[in-house]
Design brief:
The protein has 110 residues and is α/β, with parallel strands linked by helices. 31% of the residues lie in helices and 21% in strands. The protein has helices at residues 10-29, 53-59, 77-83, and strands at 34-38, 44-49, 66-69, 88-91, 102-105. β1 (34-38) and β2 form a beta hairpin. The longest helix is centred in the N-terminal third of the chain and has 20 residues, at 10-29.
Length: 110
């Protein structure tokens, strides 16, 4: 008996729904050590070097839904991400400090 498609987690449905956009943005950043800060419509609120991301997130007043970054979440950036209640982090690195946001690796978008 077929119960229909398996229920997917929020991460899977978000990634599947926006895979092309996320992949394009990720590809744009590859090798730049840069980061995009996005709202819930995946509009770019800012593009900054990863090393300035902590300060940018502290200063930005808009709600940050997702961050795409050519870098990793370190112990200094993680609490700022949690404080801003960012939902998704799309990153090249698989060496990240734990955060509440869902981590998605660039390679998962291929």
């Amino acid at each position: 008996r077929d119960s229909g498609p398996a229920r997917s987690s929020g991460k899977e449905s978000f990634v599947e729904k926006h895979k092309d956009t996320l992949k394009d943005l990720s590809d744009d950043l590859l090798g730049t050590r840069g980061a995009y800060v996005l709202d819930d419509g995946l509009n770019i609120l800012g593009k900054v070097p990863v090393k300035e991301l902590e300060e940018t997130l502290s200063d930005i007043s808009e709600t940050v839904f997702a961050i795409i970054m050519d870098g990793s979440v370190d112990k200094n950036l993680a609490p700022v991400i949690d404080k801003k209640r960012v939902k998704f982090i799309i990153t090249k690195s698989d060496k990240n400090t734990e955060v509440r946001a869902r981590l998605i690796l660039f390679k998962e978008l291929q």
